Every structure is written in structure tokens, then in C-alpha cells.
Amino acid sequence: MTEQHYLTQQFEASRQHLHKVAYRMLGSGSEAEDAVQEAWFRLNRVEAASIENLTAWLTTVVARVCLDMLRARKSNHEAIDDNVAEIATDAADNIEAELLQLDLIGPALLLLLDMLTPAERVAFVLHDVFELSFAEIAAILELPEASARQHASRARRRIRGATTAEQDAERQQSVVAAFLLAAREGNFDALLRLLHPDVVLRADATAIKISTANKAKGAPEFAPEIRGADKVAATFKGRAAGAQLAMINGLAGGTWGVNGKAMVAFCFTVADGKIATVNIVMDRAALDSFDIQLINTNNGVTA
């Protein structure tokens, strides 16, 4: 067996694990695939015989690649070019849907992870999910071990605090209901009051393709990522006419459907009475994996 054949076998044996690590950090199937492929490229540029534990080495590389991607995402604060979204491959869509169906990470936790800094997210995922030591995490973050511990601890507190706040279903529902009403009425000022100044709107590839195809009919212009209250409010102003208030995977959200079947899910996170993130999901496999309960504003929740 040649060295290249051996490396290929070992890499393929680790691929699913590496995907789990990357997906939990990035929340995107296509970006996770990019991170894993980058690890493969880097493996082919080193002296593999000197690597004692190949899986551990690959995990470290993937984590560092993800950290760089998270930092770039955080610093750019710009939507990805629409052309990139339009040519997103079906393979990437399938990977993301498959990961959701396997319940490797729920959409609610993904939204909470978006609230963390890149370092906090990496430290939390690697330690609390994949049980890496803080010494290993410190090497990846290029920080002292004590700092790695602090990042994980802060992440844990922020997620715990957000989770506690999110358990207040009535408060969540009132904020989301007010947002949907303001969107329908085209009340821009009300939308701004309900949105966090740094709110992030993300749409999956299916939502982007459908909105692009229906742009002439007045469909909103979705993008992989839209940041800022002004832009998000403008995206929703005068829209969401048919959206119904719902609980989606235990969090307040909105949905629109045909004959009782959800065609789109609006997944929100609410912090301090403001909407911090909005995820637009139209991928069929992802929607089918969601627990969606419509809310009758007069009589509570209905299945």
C-alpha cells in the first residue's frame, strides 16, 4: 500500500468526525465541507509520517480552519455575494439536510452559538461537545490554557443565560408576534424597535433560489447573510402577510404553509426583548425534521 493510499483511507475514516466538528462550529454544511477539504489539502503538504495521531491532527487543523472562517465572518459583516449563493451545489444542500436529520446539532443551538465570539464558540464546541482538553484547545486558539478555559466558561454562561431567557415562551411569542404584525403592516419604525442593532438574517440555499426566482413578483431579496437592523427591517417591510406565529423546536417563530404543510420557517432568537437572529429555512428535509406547532393567539398552541 502506497503512502498516498494509506493517507486517503485514514482521511476517509475520519471524514464523518471532521464534518461533525466543522458543522457544529460553522452551522453550515457547505462551509463544513470546505473546512474538511482544506484539512485534506494541508495533509498533503506535510510529512505525514511524522504525525503520531492522524485523527487528532486533522481535528486540530479543521478547528483552526473553522476559527479563521468564523473570524472572517465576524469581521466582514457583509453578505456573501449573491452569485455564490445561486451556484450553491445540491451536494452541499444534501449534506446540511442530512446533518440536521441526524440531529448532530439542532437549529436552536446553532442560533445560540451565533451569539458567541469565534474563540468562545471554538472553546465551547471542542470542550463541551467533543471533550478535547483545554491544553489542546489552547494550542488551537494560540492562547494560554487559562484563557481557553475562560472562553469556554463565558460561552457556557451566555448559552445558559440565553436558554433561560428563551424558556419564557410568552415573552418570545409577544416579540415575534409584534414583529410579524409590523412586517405585514409595513411599519418600518416598529420593526427597528424590535430588532437588535446587530441583528443577523440568514437564509438557506433553497430560500435564496426561490426568492430570486420570484423577485419580479415582489418576493424579498434573501441572501446567505444580511446584517444590521436597517437592512433586515427593509427585507421584511410589507411582507410576511401569510406567516403564522408558531413554536419551532421549542422557540417562538413563524411559518407559512400550504394545506397544512410548512413551506418556510422563520426561526428567531430573542435576547433582552430584541430579535438577535432570524433564520429563513425552506429546505424540505430540514423543514420535515422541525417540530412546528402553530399558535392560536386566542387559545394558545395548537398542533
From TrEMBL:
Gene3D superfamilies: 1.10.1740.10, 3.10.450.50, Winged helix-like DNA-binding domain superfamily/Winged helix DNA-binding domain. Residues 11-74 form the RNA polymerase sigma-70 region domain. It comes from the Bacteria. It holds the Pfam family Sigma70_r2. Residues 108-159 form the RNA polymerase sigma factor 70 region 4 type domain. SUPFAM superfamilies: NTF2-like, Sigma2 domain of RNA polymerase sigma factors, Sigma3 and sigma4 domains of RNA polymerase sigma factors. Interacts transiently with the RNA polymerase catalytic core formed by RpoA, RpoB, RpoC and RpoZ (2 alpha, 1 beta, 1 beta' and 1 omega subunit) to form the RNA polymerase holoenzyme that can initiate transcription. This is Sigma-70 family RNA polymerase sigma factor. The lineage of its organism: Bacteria, Pseudomonadati, Pseudomonadota, Gammaproteobacteria, Chromatiales.
